[in-house]
Amino acid sequence: MAGLTFVAGDTVSTVGSGSPTLLLLATSGADVGIVIKEVSVSFQGIVTTEAPYEVELLRCTDAGTGGSSLTPRAMNQAVVEGTISSQTTATKGTFSAEPAASDVIKNWHVHPQTGLTYPFPPNQELVCIETGGAAYIAVRLVVPTVSVDCEVYMVWEE
User: What is the pLDDT of residues 33-49, one digit of tens each?
Assistant: First the structure.
C-alpha cells in the first residue's frame, strides 16, 4: 500500500430491493490491494414510521452490467519518485443489473430519515486484494417499494 487515501460517492434514488450504488474494484492485471477505511450511507426519507432499510457491504464475483464511472477524490497526495501518484482503483455506480454477490461482509439496518457512517476500527479494516482477476466490493441497499434519495460513499487506501 502506498498510503494514498481516496473517497468516491454517488447519489441515487432507490426503488425496490437490492441496488448497489457504489462499487470499488481493484484494477485487473495489477498487483493492487485496497483497504476500505470507511463506509457511509444517508437517506432523505420523510416518513417517521417507515421501517429501517438494510445496507449491505459485500464482495462480488463480477462488476455487474452498466454502471457509470465515478471520479474518486484524493484525500491526501503522495509523491512517488517526483510525481504525484493517482488511484488505481476504478469506481462505478448506478447499475442496470447489479453485480453478483458472493458474500455479505457487514450489514446494518438504517432508518430512512437517518444515515450511518462506519469507520472500520484500526487493524480491522476490510482488505481487498486482486489476485489474477479483479476484486469487487459493493454497497447494496435493500429498500421497500418506496422511492428515497440516498448518498453513499467509501473511503479507501491504496
Answer: 788 999 999 988 888 88
- For residue 36, the SS3 value is strand
Please give the C-alpha separations between residue 38 and each of 53, 84, 118, in angstroms, as whole numbers: 19, 24, 6
Task: Please tell me the distance from the alpha carbon of residue 73 to that of residue 92, in angstroms, as a whole number.
Answer: 14
Domain ranges within the chain, ordered by starting residue? 5-157
Give the integer Cα–Cα distance in Å for 116 and 121.
15
* pLDDT digit string, tens, across residues 90-113: 788 877 777 888 889 999 999 989
Tell whether the model's pLDDT for residue 1 goes beyond 60: no
Check: CB of residue 99 under 8 Å from CB of residue 20. Answer: yes
Determine the Cα–Cα distance for residues 21 and 33; give it in Å rounded to an integer.
21
pTM exceeds 0.85 for this model: no
d(CA 116, CA 108): 8
How far apart CA 85 and CA 46 sit, in angstroms, is 42
Backbone angles phi, psi at 112, to 5 degrees: -65, -5
* Cβ-contact 19, 126 below 8 angstroms: no
Q: Which amino acid is at 101?
A: A
